[in-house]
Design brief:
The longest helix has 20 residues. By secondary structure, this protein is of the alpha/beta class. The protein contains 20 helices and eleven strands. It folds into three domains: 69 residues, no CATH class; 310 residues, Alpha-Beta Barrel (TIM Barrel); 72 residues, no CATH class. The radius of gyration is 21 Å and the shape is globular. Helix 8 links the parallel strand 5 and strand 6. The strands form two sheets. An eight-stranded parallel β-barrel has the order 1-2-5-6-7-8-9-10, surrounded by four helices. A two-stranded antiparallel sheet has the order 3-4. 47% of the residues lie in helices and 9% in strands. The structure holds S-adenosylmethionine and iron/sulfur cluster. The site of iron/sulfur cluster has 9 residues, from loops.
Length: 474
């Protein structure tokens, strides 16, 4: 993204604190929720307009089960109209768990003497990538502890390594990262390596609560973390993901703050976050957490539906922290990306172990241990269209361009055909017979809904895939 002097001015403005706890609490405490208002707001969102903080607060304060149901149905409808039935798949790859911070909720924190510390060496990274490719993965998020060893140059090295590994028809076509905040020069360095999305979770947007969980280390600086994505934008990194760790503070506050953060990025840089993540705290080695802010399943489902309605064009990620049953349910209410075949213990993809998780080797407990194929199979049974698409990022359709999603017909012209092409590759190269049959059936059904021009181009490309060509996209 090129910066005009005018944009720099906006960016300076942006460095002023944009999260005001008093303002957020005022919305929560004073906004009234009536049937009429809730319905009006759902209708506004269905016309694909982003919601104001006050409107989000109205939805948060709706407690009548009938209205909550309407919010969920609204989110389901919006997801269908914007994203169709696609669901994008990825896998996390933990590179190293050394950490100089002491986040009380995390198994990697420096005071956890039970943690088995490890940083994958190049050979181990290559083996992990080969194992992921053998499963059919095409999109990864590389995850790092916060440690001087994992500096921008090291991150670049690991990202480039991930892109370089090719096994049979396997290759990684998009590497996102989840790493500690950097300064502007650091962001410039990692941008050059061709990362997809840079993700960083604020954990909690309440600075007072934040202090109690981040006792020492660089991460104790709330503002440095909060402004990380402004620095990323200044460095030209315009594809970013935000998130909050639910369970650290009141979920209603975090939802409003996530929307506020999205609005801030949109207002200052003309592009909101590419994705929002909303992990809930899970068991971890030597976990030291109270239950005060634990988010119940009903509230979790409600908050996902509200976020979907609040920021219609932002991707939403739900990880294997949550159990399969809940994941299958909430996918319908607005989730656009999930991980599959996830393993958190360092080096465990290539060892292919199917034993009890060892919390001392991973960051937290995952609760969905289905293989990638099991997930794809279940998605196909629900008539969903699993996708490994990486086209937008590779064609430079990021940042402001990504907003092209709002152009009518974009999904039918690009996203659905690309989802079909990447699913077809998976079926040809990796799927067992039963999944293949389901997959081709879903592909045929989806092709039928496309117009004749797109249909015929797509059929040609599918034929080329069957003849052995790979990596075809629009
Ligand atoms: N170390 C980097 C940082 O702190 O920014 C990378 C992040 S960490 C490896 C990935 C994310 O996992 C954290 O930002 C946090 O939200 C989440 N996380 C940490 N402990 C967790 C737990 N016990 N349960 C669920 N998620 C957790
Ligand atoms: Fe380290 Fe990140 Fe875990 Fe905090 S959340 S202890 S910074 S790995």
């Amino acid at each position: 993204m090129k910066f005009t002097p005018e944009k720099y001015k906006i960016a300076d403005e942006a460095m002023r604190p944009f999260i005001d706890p008093e303002e957020i609490w005022e919305y929560i405490n004073t906004t009234k929720s009536s049937k009429e208002r809730v319905r009006e707001i759902i209708t506004k969102s269905l016309s694909k307009k982003r919601l104001t903080l006050e409107e989000v607060a109205v939805l948060i304060n709706a407690t009548d089960p009938e209205l909550i149901n309407e919010i969920k149905e609204g989110a389901r409808e919006l997801k269908r109209t914007i994203y169709g039935n696609r669901i994008v798949l990825f896998a996390p790859l933990y590179i190293g768990n050394k950490c100089s911070n002491n986040c009380t909720y995390c198994g990697f924190r420096s005071s956890n003497t039970n943690a088995e510390r490890k940083t994958l060496n190049d050979e181990e990274i290559v083996n992990e990538i080969k194992a992921l490719e053998d499963n059919g993965q095409k999109r990864l998020v590389l995850v790092y502890g916060d440690h001087e060893q994992y500096n921008p140059e090291y991150i670049v090295h690991t990202v480039k390594l991930a892109y370089s590994v090719k096994k049979n028809n396997g290759e990684i076509r998009r590497v996102n990262i989840n790493a500690a905040p950097l300064d502007i020069d650091g962001f410039k360095i990692i941008k050059e390596s061709g990362i997809g999305t840079y993700q960083i979770f604020q954990e909690t947007y309440n600075s007072e609560a934040y202090k109690t969980y981040h006792l020492r280390g660089k991460k104790a600086d709330f503002s440095y973390r909060l402004t990380a994505l402004d620095r990323a934008q200044e460095a030209g990194l315009d594809d970013v993901g935000i998130g909050a760790l639910f369970g650290l503070y009141d979920w209603r506050y975090e939802v409003l703050a996530l929307v506020r953060h999205s609005n801030h990025l949109e207002a200052c840089y003309n592009v909101g976050p590419h994705t929002i993540s909303f992990p809930r705290i899970k068991d971890a080695s030597m976990l030291q957490m109270g239950e005060k802010y634990f988010v119940r399943d009903e509230d979790f489902i409600k908050l996902i539906a509200i976020l979907r309605l609040a920021v219609p064009y932002t991707g939403m990620i739900l990880t294997a922290r949550e159990p399969a049953k809940l994941r299958n349910e909430v996918i319908q209410f607005g989730v656009s990306q999930i991980d599959g075949g996830t393993k958190l213990e360092l080096g465990s993809y290539s060892k292919n172990l199917n034993q009890e998780q060892n919390l001392n080797k991973g960051q937290f407990r995952i609760n969905d241990d289905r293989s990638l194929n099991e997930i794809i199979d279940e998605l196909l049974q629900q008539d969903m269209l699993p996708s490994f698409c990486t086209a937008c990022y590779r064609l430079g359709r990021t940042g402001e361009h990504f907003m092209e999603f709002s152009v009518p017909g974009f999904i039918k012209r690009y996203c659905t055909p690309n989802a079909i092409l990447t699913l077809a590759e998976y079926l040809l190269d990796y799927a067992p017979e039963a999944t293949k049959n389901k997959g081709w059936h879903v592909i045929e059904k989806n092709i039928e809904q496309l117009n004749d021009e797109i249909k015929s181009g797509l059929k040609n490309k599918l034929e080329l895939l069957k003849q052995g060509k790979r990596d075809l996209y629009y």
